[in-house]
Design a protein that fits this description.
The two termini are about 20 Å apart. This protein has one domain (about 1-235): Rhomboid-like fold (Up-down Bundle). By secondary structure, it is mainly α. It is globular, with a radius of gyration of 18 Å. It has a three-stranded antiparallel sheet. Helix 7 packs across helix 8 (about 165-180). About 65% of the residues lie in helices and about 10% in strands. The protein has helices at about 15-35, 40-50, 50-55, 65, 75-95, 95-120, 130-145, 165-180, 195-210, 215-230, and strands at about 1-5, 150-155, 160-165.
């Protein structure tokens, strides 16, 4: 198994206050979910997850916000929080704390609205931080296209780096491929993943990222300098 564990960006700028806040919030809420169990958990999901058909009928409008703090299982939580931990602090460093907070929430809400628009007849509750984190990935691609993502090959405990452009580009391609593969299938036959939320959040992040591109160049310069004169970091 291969998965990301970090990047080679030089940390600076705003401290990742809200990145850690969102990490902690999601973890604590998941612990609460586990404590519910059974039918109580399903009621919780139905109440705070986004059900497209209900939303379009004017019910539970708040759910486009609350759903981004819910997760359907440990793997769902760990995957999302790993991506937030790797990429979130970089975006918050450039955006600043308050702008990052607003960006993250807006990304999650817009991702939910895109999901609703593409699944307007669905009665299945949508939940997870994936939409907001997709927005973070979109902004990262624009702000740090030349950074490198540190990967680990868990079987051999071997680490290596790949370009962020390749890593995030491949991730985005997977989202479109998944939408295509699940087109026309019944809900029970699909993976139950809100792929359109990922795509909507990502595109939103790309658009916002362009407004901060000039500021991000400062961090790119520092990273490039380190890559040339501090080679021992990557041995």
């Amino acid at each position: 198994m291969i998965f990301p564990i970090g990047d080679d960006n030089i940390k600076g700028g705003a401290k990742p206050v809200f990145t850690y806040f969102f990490l902690l919030s999601n973890i604590l809420i998941y612990i609460y979910e586990v404590s519910l169990g059974g039918n109580y958990l399903q009621v919780f999901f139905n109440t705070f997850g986004t059900v497209p058909k209900d939303f379009l009928n004017g019910h539970k409008l708040y759910s486009v916000f609350t759903n981004m703090f819910l997760h359907g299982g440990m793997a769902h939580l760990v995957g999302n929080m790993l991506f937030l931990w790797i990429f979130g602090d970089n975006i918050e460093a450039v955006f600043g704390n308050i702008k990052f907070f607003l960006f993250y929430i807006a990304g999650g809400v817009i991702a939910s609205l895109v999901h609703i628009g593409m699944n307007y007849q669905s009665t299945i509750p949508s939940l997870g931080a994936s939409g907001a984190i997709s927005a973070v990935l979109g902004a990262y691609l624009i702000l740090f296209p030349r950074s490198r993502i540190k990967m680990i090959f868990i079987i051999f405990f071997m680490t290596f780096y790949i370009p962020a452009l390749f890593f995030i580009g491949f991730w985005f391609f997977q989202q479109f491929l998944s939408v295509y593969n699940e087109a026309g299938q019944m809900p029970a036959q699909t993976q139950g993943v809100a792929w359109w939320a990922h795509i909507g959040g990502f595109i939103f992040g790309v658009i916002v990222g362009f407004f901060f591109r000039t500021k991000a160049k400062t961090y790119e310069f520092v990273r490039e300098y380190n890559n040339r004169f501090n080679h021992s970091k990557y041995r």
